[in-house]
Write a structure and sequence with these properties.
Blueprint (H helix, E strand, L loop, with lengths): L7 E12 L2 E12 L3 E5 L6 H8 L7 E6 L2 E3 L4 H6 L2 E4 L11 H5 L6 E4 L4 E4 L1 H14 L16 H13 L5 E5 L7 H16 L3 E5 L3 H7 L2 E6 L2 E7 L5 H8 L3 H4 L1
């Protein structure tokens, strides 16, 4: 699908967020298309995570608007964002080490069926297993056994399970915070391939990372933040690491 033909799924308009005297996000506006991988980069403290926590419902903005599918929304929790098709995967994967893969995928969103005429609810483990196996197969990790605990998995496998946890809800947009940090070269390659598969399935991905090689490898556009403000939006196929870094540190003229 051509980039220009993709529909915008979400718009952020004039977002501000303060923590006491600290301004974390300054008048940030951006739009994200369906089936697009949008890179979000900036130095530590640039406002990347704060902006995306607002989009995922974890933080509330002080001012500004969020528009999803041409509808103004106000998120008061991550659950509100998920109901609008937006989920976020954190750097620590958000998994419970002692729980199985299946239990982690459906943690807090378990499938229930009625028993005794609907008088009591019972976990539908068969349905959860089927959906877990389907999701793992879709992301290319069908070799992971759903009975294994999260603490038995490699970093790349944990990332895959985190993605599956989001996929079972049928998201339209997944925010990934440092998805390739602390992974081996092989596992980085598999995670980047997962991102490409999500794009092919028309799922939008926001890819937050300090690893510019990974950002350049998969992102259609790259948004650069500096001191809470969006300072550049670059075409992923037409830029390079030097230009991105120049925008990150305000050295554009020197690098030109």
């Amino acid at each position: 699908m051509e980039e220009t033909a993709r529909r915008f799924f979400v718009h952020l308009q004039g977002i501000w967020k303060r923590f006491g005297p600290i301004v974390a996000v300054r008048d940030a506006s951006l739009s994200i298309r369906r089936g697009e991988v949008l890179g979000l980069v900036g130095d530590n403290g640039a406002g990347k995570s704060s902006l995306m926590k607002i989009l995922s419902g974890v933080l509330r903005p002080d001012s500004g608007k969020i528009i999803v599918e041409d509808r103004f929304v106000q998120f008061t929790s991550a659950g509100d964002a998920r109901r609008c098709g937006i989920d976020m995967i954190y750097q620590d994967y958000g998994l419970v080490g002692s729980l199985s893969v299946l239990e982690n995928i459906f943690l807090g969103r378990e499938l229930i069926y009625g028993a005794l005429g609907g008088m009591i609810g019972v976990l539908d483990r068969s349905a959860m297993k089927r959906r877990s196996l389907k999701a793992l197969s879709e992301v290319g990790f069908s070799s992971i056994e759903v009975t294994r605990t999260a603490e038995q998995l490699s970093g790349g496998e944990r990332q895959a399970v985190s993605i599956c946890r989001a996929l079972v809800l049928g998201p339209d947009l997944i925010i990934m915070d440092e998805p390739t940090a602390a992974l081996s070269v092989k596992e980085v390659g598999r995670v980047l391939q997962l991102v490409r598969q999500l794009r092919s399935a028309d799922v939008a991905v926001v890819f937050i990372s300090h690893r510019l090689d990974d950002v350049l490898a998969v992102c259609d556009r790259i948004v650069v933040l500096r001191r809470g403000r969006i300072v550049a939006t670059l075409n992923g196929s037409e830029t390079n690491g030097s230009e991105v870094v120049a925008h990150m540190f305000g050295d554009v003229e020197a690098r030109a």
